[in-house]
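Folding follows sequence. Below is one example:
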Amino acid sequence: MLKLKSGSNGAVALALMIALASAWMGLGANGIYCDRLPSLTILATTAAFVIALCFRLLARTNTRTQKAQLVIALVIAAGTLYGNAHFVLKYRGICRQLQQQVRQIK
């Protein structure tokens, strides 16, 4: 069986997966897709979870390598959280206006 020696590898892997999913959702769009905002909000929340996980694991690690890995995961997750929150806040008002216009037409 596969045994992980520390959670630092898992934290880096989670941070990278969330960052890649966020980039795919946010940057892969040619236009504004209002249906992607909830998904990006969930990914931002998950990135915040990874940040909390990194801080918890930092207290338990002993080696410099593990601490460096956790700092890298922390930076990736923080960048992902900032990017997702910025995207959602930027387009939330536009999507709300579009929904109101659609409701007025109906």
Remarks:
- Helices lie at 8-27, 37-60, 64-105.
- The chain has a mean pLDDT of 86.
